[in-house]
Amino acid sequence: MSLLSNLKRSIPSLSKAESRIAKAILIDPEATVNMTTSELARLAGVSDPMISRFCRTMECTSFPDFKVQLAKSLVNKVSFISEAVSPGDNSANYIEKRINANQAALEYIRTKLDPAIIEQTVAALSRSKKIEIFGMGGCAAIAKDAQHKLFRLGIPTMAHEDHLMQRMVAASADEDTTILIFSFTGRTQAMVEIAEIAKNSGAKLITICSPNSPLAELADITITSGDELEDTTIYVPMTTRIIILTITDILTTGLALEQGEEIEAQLKKIKHSLDSTKII
Asked: What share of the chain is helix, strand, coil (3-state, %, to 5)?
């Protein structure tokens, strides 16, 4: 049963305060996906802590988790475009739905990222003498984006999307190499095989993928791709792609800060190299 259906069914058994929250949500569930705790509390006429208690009553860990489940329950899974939209949506609908879905996903991932794991990942990247980035299919563009950001920080970095090249690079890696693998699901057979080659070569293996996947089991460090938010085996990855790009930005920022002031001159030099390419 979807959260929205469960919400309607549960109203008679809820407390007065919880019932007010449920009714406020049902007036405009799509707007709720974009609300803060305080906004919903004011709308329902309850305290902020009551929103958290209500979410636990609805078997959600937090209000961000509740919003993600609510967004998923609003989806009519008949479109291969995206879970967030439905056939017949006009431009106003799909603009609002896509923005709401992405905002809810970022709020969700905020609660899932462990700062200790991020620090561990940044430290591993910082110690690397070489960073190799792998991505296939939709993750190939994400790998290129990561290369575009990371190469500026003084560590030789290269992205590879061809799986034969990935196998050869993995086989030639050593303990000074960090291999960063992007995968929406962590279940692509070729990518799992490549990860095994990398491990046998002694490389440090970092994956951004589903934590409950064969690829994650091989990794030294795994950061969630947020794959539970959309079924990427059916739909074009949108929400998940936004999450992985955001995680890449977080890691790049952390690595730049880790390297301190000395990286400023490098970044300035790279940026100024483009000055002559601009039309004034």
From this structure: 60, 10, 30
Rounded Cα gap, residues 18 and 25, in angstroms: 11
**Strand ranges (DSSP E) for the chain?**
130-135, 157-160, 177-182, 204-209, 221-224
pLDDT of amino acid 48: 93
| Domains of the chain, CATH where assigned | 3-74+85-111 (1.10.10.10), 115-259 (3.40.50.10490)
pTM confidence score: 0.71
pLDDT tens for residues 200-218?
Answer: 999 999 999 999 899 999 9
Do the Cβ atoms of 252 and 150 come closer than 8 Å? Answer: yes
Residue located via tokens 């730049």: 256
Read off the DSSP letter of residue 59.
T
Q: Which helix (H) or strand (E) holds 173?
A: none
3-state secondary structure (DSSP) of residue 200: helix
CA dist 73 and 65 (Å) reads: 12
Distance in angstroms (rounded) separating the CA atoms of residues 280 and 275: 10
